[in-house]
Each structure stands twice: as C-alpha cells, then as structure tokens.
Specification:
The chain has 475 residues and is α+β, with helices and mostly antiparallel strands. 39% of the residues lie in helices and 25% in strands. It has four domains: 117 residues, PAS domain (Beta-Lactamase); 114 residues, PAS domain (Beta-Lactamase, 2-Layer Sandwich); 78 residues; 144 residues, Heat Shock Protein 90 (2-Layer Sandwich). A hairpin with a 4-residue loop joins strand 17 and strand 18. Helix 8 runs antiparallel to helix 9. The protein is elongated, with a radius of gyration of 31 Å.
C-alpha cells in the first residue's frame, strides 16, 4: 500500500494551513531536512507545545525516531505493506510523556515534504459534551474566550479573542501571557496574571486597542479549581459591544448637536450682521491709517480684523457642525485628493521640523463623497498630528482595505505623546479641546463630514503615538 501522493496545496501556504486545520487528527508537516514546517491546532492541544516551540525544530521533538524523515517514511511503508493496515508509532508531549498512536505519512514528491497524521490524537467521537461546547465557543460564536493554566499559559483561545488581539490562534495557544503581551505594561493588558490569584471580574466595562481598531468590551473572569479546591487555571470571557456603545454615543452626540443647532440657528444671523458692519468700518480705518502713516493704529486695526475673521470662522464651523448640509455627492478619486493636499501638509510639517511619509499600497479605490470636505478632514487631522509632535517626529499616512473588504481605511499616524485614556472618549465632543486657543470643533466637524457620507472615524493611542483611521465605503 503506497502512502505517496501529490500535495497540490503546497503552492499556497494559506491554503495548506486551512487544509491542515480542517483535519480532525494531529498533523505536522516536515521537510527533507527533518525540520517541522507547520503544525495544526489539534497537535498543539495534545502535545502542550506552542507553534513557535515546534516550527523549525527537528520532527524528533514529537516523534522520538532515530533516523531521517525519508527513512521514517520508507520504514512505515514497509511495515504497512507487511501488516496491511496503519502501523503505530511512538510520540512524545511537552512533558516528555510517551505514548503510541496509529500513523500515516504522506509524501509530496516535488518538494519532498512529509505530511504526518497521528491518527487518534484525538478522535472527535471521544469528545465529551463539555469539550464540544468548548469547541463551539472557540470557533463558532462571537464571544471572546481565553483559558489559562496555573502557570499563566494560554491553553485555549477563541477566534473572536484572537481577532481582538490582532494575532493568529497558532501564535497564541500554549504561550505565556508575558509573551503574548510583550512590551505592554501589566495594568494595560487584556489578560492579567493576577486572575490566577483569585481576582474576579463580573460585567466590567473596558476597552482594548490593537494596531487596527479599538474595541469596547464587557468582561467576566474567574479562577478554575480542581476537586481539592486548588486553583488550576483561570478564564476570561468577554463580549464585544463596540457597535452598541457607538450607537449610544451617536444618539447622545446627535442630541447635543440638535441643541447646538437650535442655538446656532437663532444666533448666527444676529452675530454675523454686526460683524459685517464692524469689519467694514475697520477696513476703512485700516486704509486711512495706512495713508496717514499711523503705523501703531494700523497694527491695532489689523489685529482686530484678524480676530473678526476668527469669529467668522468659528461661526462657520458652528453652522457646519449643527445644521443639515446638502453634500454635493460625486465620485472622488482619493489618489488625486492626496496629490493635492500633501504639499499643504508638508509645508505645515516643515515649520515644525516634522517628516511626512506617504506609504501607498497601489491605487486607492474611488469613493462617493464631497471632495472639498474630504480634503478638510485629512488636512485637519494631519495638522493636529503635526502640532501634537512638537518640534520632531514623523507623520505617517497609509491606506489599506479593511478585513470586511467593503471599506478603505486611511490611516494617519503621528509619533507624538499619544492621547491619555481618560480623554480619548471625549475628543470628538463639541467644544472639547486641549489647545489653549482651540475651539474644540475641528474633530467634531471631521466626524460629521465622514458620518454624512456613510463612513467612520476612529482613533487608537497606546501612549507612544496616535493613529486616526478614516474608513470610507468604496466602489
């Protein structure tokens, strides 16, 4: 009986991984040199290793065989031919315990790769109801789940949990929390080792930000005990309520904007009429002072005109923020938009000694929106980032298609001090500002512009820089 076949999936590492993970048996892929190339989740579960501890290691780490991969293949073929069925082989887990299991080894001829199936590790029919529930939680629900052993290793993680971390499950299972959250202070981690000391959480609201997105979560956590009451592990269970929280905040913001709109509608006209008269007379005075050589009076008049223009600008932002606006929808080429605004951003950055980097991953798709308003959004956020960095730093502008595949995300990252957690939820509120001369309307206006064309604007900051993600539906 031959166990050699052509493994056509080898051409794509992604397809090969999906194929391996769909198998109910523990599987490892070994190259001609005897090094492990890939493993699946079932193998990690039954051996206790993490993926990093196995990949690029000798296959003898799992199979204590004295010989090469080719010799193992030939020997198993010979034993299969003699017995007429699958033969058993010894395998070893992370603790050094050895057992036997039926095995089948398949060879891909062209690249000389060996796919080794450890056939009974573990049979699906042997799973208890609780194990089936765990499998459902980890793969098919929107709940985030982490299970830790007594030494703070993550022995199980759901797909949703790994999505929040921005990591692949293979790079999480059987790793210590210190490795998973390397570089992040204990108090800011999604999973804390203090859980193993008996700290319990119930319906605790928190937030978590990975490199791409910020999440609002409701968290429950507790310890797990054995029959004697000894703590043998802990679990963290959480639900992503980002959309619900965003909906609530949007309702609150709309209520505030409606109130602002009523105030603006009643006062903007009354403000602008006297301002127009004052500005007109000041311009007359300015000309007279210039003609008469009254430099001091001319300077004072110029200052007053500057302040009048500032008041007019504030009223304009006020009206844009509050009252409904007829947006001139059209097809917008984002590539052209950035060609036109980059010189403006770079000239502003030059004044502060800031380096501007625009990273393009090919042409950006077309979106539907208002060209001038989109320019206003991008310039405003870039300007905020430049001012936040002070006299040195880098403003990085990039773009990517989001995971759902229906939006393009424009990411504007600065290397400034970041936004403190206690104010990050307030930065889009009208009139909230940390600048001495700011109006607190810039980001509120930006958010309204993006929302009006069906997009979203989010911010992430971990204390070492800030990233704004402007997500727009594209065609």
């Amino acid at each position: 009986m031959s166990a050699s076949f052509s493994l056509h999936l080898v051409g794509s590492s992604g397809r090969l991984q999906r194929f391996m993970h769909q198998l109910p048996t523990a599987v490892l892929l070994v190259n001609q040199a005897g090094s492990i190339v890939e493993v699946n989740e079932q193998l990690l579960r039954v051996t206790g290793y993490s993926r990093d501890q196995l990949v690029k290691q000798p296959f003898q780490t799992i199979l204590p065989y004295q010989g090469s991969a080719e010799q193992l293949y030939e020997e198993l073929l010979h034993r299969e031919a003699e017995s007429g069925s699958n033969v058993e082989i010894e395998w070893r887990d992370k603790q050094g315990r050895s057992r036997k299991t039926p095995v089948m080894i398949l060879r891909q001829e062209e690249q000389e790769l060996y796919l080794i199936h450890l056939c009974q590790l573990v049979k699906e029919t042997d799973q208890s109801l609780s194990e089936r529930l765990l499998g459902k939680l980890t793969h098919d629900t929107s709940l985030g789940l982490f299970i830790l052993d007594e030494h703070a290793h993550i022995i199980e993680a759901s797909q949703t949990a790994c999505k929040l971390l921005g990591m692949d499950r293979l790079n999480v299972i059987n790793k210590h929390v210190d490795q998973v959250f390397s570089g992040i202070p204990e108090q800011h981690r999604l999973i804390k080792k203090e859980l193993l000391e008996g700290v319990k959480l119930q319906n605790i609201a928190t937030s978590w930000t990975n490199d791409n997105q910020r999440y609002e979560l409701i968290v429950d956590a507790s310890t797990l005990q054995d029959e004697s009451g000894k703590t043998v592990g802990a679990f963290v269970l959480f639900k992503d309520i980002t959309n619900l929280r965003s909906f609530e905040q949007k309702i609150e913001r709309n209520e505030r904007l409606a109130m602002i709109g009523q105030i603006a509608a009643g006062t903007a006209h009354e403000i602008r009429n006297p301002l127009t008269s004052i500005k007109g007379f000041l311009q007359m005075f300015l000309k007279s002072f210039s003609d008469s050589g009254m430099d001091r009076e001319k300077t004072y008049t110029e200052i007053m005109l500057t302040e009048i223009n500032r008041i007019n600008s504030l009223v304009s932002e006020f009206l844009l923020l509050s009252k409904p606006r007829d947006i001139q929808y059209c097809m917008v080429d984002l590539n052209t938009v950035f060609v036109e605004i980059l010189p403006i951003v770079e000239s502003q950055a030059l004044l502060y000694g800031i380096d501007v980097r625009f990273t393009s991953q090919g042409k950006m798709p077309m979106v539907v929106g208002d060209t001038e308003l989109l320019k206003q959004v991008f310039i405003n956020i870039c300007k905020n980032g430049i001012e936040a960095m002070g006299e040195q730093g880098t403003l990085q502008i990039s773009h990517h298609i989001d995971q759902d595949g229906d939006r393009v995300s424009i990411d504007i990252h600065d290397t400034g001090p970041g936004i403190p957690l206690y104010i990050i939820d307030k930065i889009f509120d009208p009139f909230f500002t940390t600048k001495e001369e700011g109006t607190g309307l810039g980001l509120s206006v930006c958010q309204k512009i993006i929302h009006d064309i069906g997009g979203q604007i989010r911010v992430s900051s971990k204390g070492y820089g800030t990233t704004f993600h402007i997500m727009l539906p594209y065609l």
